[in-house]
Amino acid sequence: MIALTANVMSDDVERYKAAGFDDYIGKPFELQQFVDTVARCLGDKQTLALTPESLQDNAAETDLKAMLKQRFPDYLQSIESSWREMNLGLLKHEVHQLKGAALLFEFPVIGDVCRDIEAGLVPRDGQINIAAIAPKVEALLALLQD
Predict the structure, then answer these.
(1) Which residues touch 4 (CB under 8 Å, ≥6 apart)?
(2) 132 in Cβ contact with 120 (< 8 Å)
């Protein structure tokens, strides 16, 4: 099991290992780093027929992209609900997760909108400008419905 995380301080890594993770990958990460870490955890790089090059026009990439796209309705529901209820903590969490996956699996428009929403959810002078992020949230919801 591999932790994908932005928290890579030595005490964080120790917690992952104590929790049973075999390794970790710090975000943001490069595809080669992902492939190398998975191969290392499998113990034999030959058992992993996955390279950054093989993902470019490969069924594996298509499958991974399809799996993410199948989750769009779940993200849609969660983001829509958290926005309607003004649960900004949950909204930020969901948008952050979707941003990472969207950018990794080449859904750049969705990733960029998520990045904008995430930036807008950072308080300025102690407040979040809801009016400024509203059109971005609506745009994201429309993208997830397509």
Answers:
(1) 24, 25, 27, 29
(2) yes
Could you report the average pLDDT of every consecutive run of 10 residues in the chain (146 residues)? 83 85 81 78 58 58 74 92 96 91 85 95 94 96 90
Give the list of residues 6+ apart from residue 137 with CB closer than 8 angstroms, or none.
79, 83, 91, 117
In terms of DSSP H, where are the helices of the chain?
Answer: 10-18, 31-42, 52-56, 59-84, 88-104, 108-120, 130-145
Are the C-beta atoms of 141 and 76 separated by less than 8 Å? yes
The pTM of this model reads 0.64
Query: N- to C-terminal Cα distance for the chain?
Result: 33
DSSP 13-54: HHHHHHTT-SEEEESS--HHHHHHHHHHHHT-GGG----HHH
